[in-house]
Amino acid sequence: MQKVVLCVVLFVAICELVAASSLALLSREERGAKKGKCSEWEFGECIPKKGTCGPGKKPGTRQGGCRNKQKMFKCQVPCAAETAVAIVDKNRKKMMKKKGCRYSKGPWSECDLTTNMMNRTLTLKKSNPDCEETRTVQKRCKKNKNKNKKRRCMYNKGDWSDCDPVTNTRNRTLTLKKGDSSCKAMQTRVKNCGRAKKGCRYSHTWSACDTTTMLKTKLDQLKPNSKDGCPATRARPAKTKKCKCKYGWKPFTKCDDNKKKTRTGILLEHTSDAGCPPTKDVTKNCRKAKDICTFGPWGKFGPCENGVRTKTRTIVAGADIPKCLKKSAKTKRCTRA
């Protein structure tokens, strides 16, 4: 009996699985029917970006269950000159060569300023029924680079003059050698003499040390081999620096009644600047001697009196110093038992 029940249960389960799979298949077919296939693109009119011809974009649409049903595509609107005459067409040339069409090329015409195009005629060399008798080829005009180019002017160069110490410049004259009427007959070139060729030369020295400010100043003096007409001194912003004074120091004296001590320095002439004082005194305050306290070992805390217990230690050195007396004892709070 149990086997029969198990068989019935299995049969029911299998029937349910088959029904579910058939529903799934039906749902897939329905989805496919809803989606459908995308149709081919249908394009609208090409709209150029600028003017009435040239590169632009055209709208495209398609039907079906597609995600993108509308899209803009790149396109080209042919200009009037390009539609009338075939511009360089590589595919057409290859086709003509296969047919055995060979042409003799005529000269290029003058540039048409309205269309900026130039053309020439091709004539068939050998008669061939598959080839055209004449063809016209067109291309854009090249910019005439030499149209606005001036004719070169060539000159004979003279010698440079001597340097003018006032303006620090020299010049030379150029005479026309070859050129048209637009070239100048004579020209003058001017340039600086340069730092190495200046007529006025200066040396830089430092003055003696000023004892009031302890500073020395930089001086610019004219060199003896300079040319005539140069100023004896050059106007420059004044530069100063501290005097270099070095001293050999003696030891400090003992402290006086004002609690100060002094030491004297003697100038070292071979390492110092001219104008430094021969001696120099330095004074400073005397330091206070530190209080020295020496103690013995700590004793034990005594009995509790008035809520305080005390322990002490003996003072070995500094018994008359209040600081040492304070450090010789310690206290702590207590409560009577």
Structure, explained:
It is a single chain. With 337 residues, the chain is α+β, with helices and mostly antiparallel strands. The strands form six sheets. Strands 1, 2, 3 and 4 form a four-stranded antiparallel β-sheet that branches. It is 16% helix and 34% strand. It contains four helices and 19 strands. It starts with a helix and ends with a strand.
Jot down its keywords.
single chain, 337 residues, alpha+beta, four-stranded antiparallel beta sheet, three-stranded antiparallel beta sheet, flat
Describe this structure in a few short sentences:
By secondary structure, this protein is α+β, with helices and mostly antiparallel strands.
